[in-house]
Specification:
CATH topology: Rossmann fold
Number of strands: 5
Strand content: 5-15%
Distance between the termini: 62 Å
Order of helices and strands: HEHEHHEHEHEH
Length: 205
């Protein structure tokens, strides 16, 4: 009897999860483009790097490790975790107003570049594109972390906004499902690409 109950419970949980995924995938974020993207700094030395987490599982741990590695390898750099300064930004934007509020919170910090994570499902990918483009509108360059399972989706959404490409870091799916040690190993592997995306990527290239 207990086995039957457990099986029913697991099936119900799975169906609910899949249903939620389908709904999220169908949600459409508004188009905010075309947007003129901003040039990236040639170096992060002496710069302020803002890390923005959209509330997705393990994204804060991923970005924290990014900040640690930047601090270790770059002189005189300032790392700011937006979710610690403005807790309301640690969530997927559900409407244009919320996205614009995220951009406004970013502007207050006056960063030289924003690194955001993560795009690893339908809804968060759509809204992260909107969030990053709204930040670009404020004159601040961005880097966006996306998993390889949603890279094509993100690229399509970018083009839908009249932008040819954005500075992306494509990491292996998933980011969720790892312990802290696994996240550190993932970021350590991704870091050369992250640093390159922050300092060598330029609009139109």
């Amino acid at each position: 009897m207990k086995k039957v109950f457990l099986l029913v419970f697991l099936c119900s949980f799975l169906v609910a999860g899949l249903s939620g995924y389908a709904v999220a995938k169908e949600e459409k974020a508004p188009k905010v483009g075309p947007v003129k993207l901003n040039p990236h700094p040639a170096s992060l030395e002496g710069k302020t790097v803002l890390l923005r987490w959209n509330g997705k599982f393990n994204g804060d741990k991923y970005l924290t490790r990014v900040g640690e590695l930047i601090t270790q390898q770059v002189k005189n750099v300032k790392i700011v975790k937006l979710w610690e300064v403005e807790k309301s930004t640690a969530a997927i934007s559900k409407d244009l107003q919320a996205s614009e509020q995220v951009a406004a919170a970013v502007v207050k910090i006056k960063p030289d570049i924003v690194i955001a994570a993560q795009a690893d499902s339908g809804s968060c990918t759509s809204w992260l594109v909107v969030d990053q483009l709204n930040i670009e509108k404020k004159g601040i360059p961005t880097v966006t972390v996306v998993t390889n399972a949603f890279n094509e989706t993100m690229s399509s959404l970018i083009k839908d906004n009249g932008v040819s490409e954005m500075s992306l870091v494509v990491t292996e799916h998933p980011i969720a499902g790892h312990n802290l040690d696994g996240i550190k190993k993932k970021v350590d592997k991704d870091f050369p690409t992250i640093l390159k995306a922050a300092t060598q990527w330029q609009p139109g290239k």
